[in-house]
Amino acid sequence: MTIQEQILQDISAAFSALFDHQVEPSSISLQPTRKEFEGTYTFVMFPFLKVTKSNPEQSGTLVGQYLKDNSAAVKDFNVVKGFLNLVVEENLWVDVFQKLYSKENVAQLPSNGQKVMVEYSSPNTNKPLHLGHLRNNFLGFSISEILAANGYEVIKANLVNDRGIHICKSMVAYKHLANGETPESAGLKGDHLAGKYYVAFDREYKRQVGELKESGQSEEMAKSMAPWMMEAQEMLRKWEAGDKDTVDLWNQMNQWVYQGFNDTYKRMGVLFDKFYYESDTYLLGKDIVEEGLEKNIFYKKENGSVWVDLSEEGLDEKLVLRGDGTSVYITQDMGTADLKYKDFILDKSVYVVGNEQDYHFDVLFKIMRKLGRPYGDGLYHLSYGMVDLPTGKMKSREGTVVDADDLMQEMIDTAEGHTKELGKIDGFSEEQAKELYEILGMGALKYFLLKVDPKKRMLFNPQESIEFQGNTGPFIQYSHARISAILRKADQIGVDYKTADFSQLEKIEPSEQDLIIVLNDFEKKIRQAGEDLAPSIIAQYMFDLAKEYNRFYAELPIFNEGDALVQSFRVALSDQVAKTLKAGMKLLGVRVPDRM
RNA sequence: GGUCCCGUAGCUCAACUGGAUAGAGCAACUGCCUUCUAAGCAGUAGGUUUCAGGUUCGAGUCCUGACGGGAUCACCA
Question: Considering only residues 69-108 of protein chain A, which place a Cβ less than 7 A from any atom of strand B?
Fold first, then answer.
């Protein structure tokens, strides 16, 4: 039982003893006491004034006195207005610490026997990844780690959009302009090569549309009869018909793109357990349309198109199959949902997709529930906000995108610059130094993108956004490196901290107690991050912990401390903070260095 | 136009899901390296939480309306 649970139980007992009133311990809660008041936990009396039949101060005093007399956890109390502040017995914090410190793995909750799929990344294969994809990938990877820490078995999936008109556009431009260019001959990553031709297509297409409009065509006509657009449409038809030349070129270009993506994913540090390809799944879902018709959940219009009426659920009517019998986006999404379930028998399924598709997923999930899918209630859309630039929204065609590869390299270069400026690479080999820059640069970038509530849109200012001081990845990494230095020294001079018994400690300092309280919150934060699908909760916690540790570090001596038990306690406390920082940052996909 | 998100210090973000005098970082200013890493610590300054009502012991948080920003509403993906 935790201290909080203990106190809640005692409060419940207080209510029955003092007021003859039953309060379920699980129905009440404590909140941390604000810094300006004395105490650790605060119990709010206001909701219970009807029961206590007296004013807030008197009620609080009665309950406080009862707890002081009868609760093993409560040492003292004070009442400010209706707030009952409780001071916890100091030595209990040492027990709490001992328990935490003895844990094998600080960030792993027991298995809950459930399986969850996290689908993220899901790129188009016609252009390289950009800043928006970075947020997606970091979120997807991090939430996978967090769910695994919460006891789920996690399958990380990537649904690659490898077919469709946009890929054909790159292919058309390539055919016309490339002269057999390859990534090697062009000196470009494969995904950047494909992107180059996608941009080239757009430029030529716009020129053609302009020309047609000048010759008197309407905008709409010009757009659909531009030669390259017609060619792209034709190429899509050929691809679907399995035309060999088309499929060969498609394969060739996709292979190049995948090689490029692999490099990018590697540097990002993200992984996948399962790849789905739309070229395999785009025809799925038609059987579900049939099923929906049979169950009278869908209906057919005169022209043969199939619809679902979601007006009872507060949405509109929605098309699920075209009049000519071909699929729309949601048709294959229905099919893929079934496929995922069939492949893994999932309890939950998380889709990491930007919030511009909120409506789409609302519709998809409601349909699957209407169809009575067993996994229907386990579907979640982790809907994240766009990343804006100071100039506004990123637009690939206007060249205002921040390229993922460029940005990552820039971060690493900046990390190198900072590190050298601070003269912190004495004793590092060339290899180690490079590794460090990678850890720091990527840490700064990931932390920056993950510390913000995923639901909210966020601003990225290339000039100013990525700092190395304050609430940043490197700040937390630095705290870890400092502790590592302490542990190295402790081991070297033979401080016994791993197995020492701290129950004989006379007293602990306020900053030690505060640190234990924060350490003790880790499990709660892991739970909350898992429930809310929000890595930002972990990021925020990492900052709080590092901040608290740095205060402790500045206030209290370790190796100059005369009392051997106090000294080893402080080393152990540092050790536990390091473990927690390392484990927490791992949940964000960020590595921490031992020296920096 | 309908629907859905968002609006907190100059800037970027928090606020334990309705609790006390709204907190951090950056930028500005003041201290602290002869002690374990100053990418740090301590402090000063910065707010009518867009505005107007309402609900209640209590509202940044819930409700209504206005203003401002964004997304979405294709037989596109």
Answer: 80-83, 85
Chunked into runs of 10 residues, chain A (596 residues) has average pLDDT values of: 90 93 88 89 92 90 95 93 91 93 94 97 94 96 98 97 93 95 96 94 92 87 90 93 95 97 97 96 94 94 91 87 91 96 96 94 94 94 91 69 92 94 88 96 96 92 84 96 96 92 90 94 95 96 97 94 93 97 98 96
Name the protein residue, with chain letter, whose CA is nearest the C1' of B40: A550
Which nucleotides in chain B lie closer than 7 A to a protein CB?
A: 4-6, 11-17, 19-21, 24-27, 35-42, 57-58, 70-77
Angle (CA) A538-A539-A545 rounded to 5° is 85
Q: Is the CB of A327 under 7 A from strand B?
A: yes
Nearest-nucleotide field for A422 (CA, C1')? B39
Instruction: Collect all residues with Cβ–Cβ distance below 8 Å to A205 and sequence separation of at least 6.
Output: A169, A226, A228, A229
Answer yes or no: is A210 CB < 7 A from strand B: no
- In this structure, are residues A352 and A118 in contact, taking their beta carbons and an 8 Å threshold? yes
Which candidate, A103, A85, A12, places its Cα nearest to that of A44?
A: A85
Scanning residues 445 through 474 of protein chain A, those with a beta carbon under 7 Å from any atom of strand B turn out to be 451-453, 455-459, 461, 464-465, 467-472, 474
What does DSSP say about strands A306-309 and A115-119: parallel, antiparallel, or unpaired?
A: unpaired
CA of A216 to C1' of B51 (A): 50
Please give the sequence-ordered ranges of beta strands (E in DSSP) within A45-89, or none if there are none.
Answer: 74-80, 83-88
Domains observed in chain A? 3-88 (3.30.1360.70), 164-276 (no CATH), 404-587 (1.10.730.10)
- The pTM of the full predicted model, rounded to 2 decimals, is 0.95
Tokens 């010759």, residue? A215
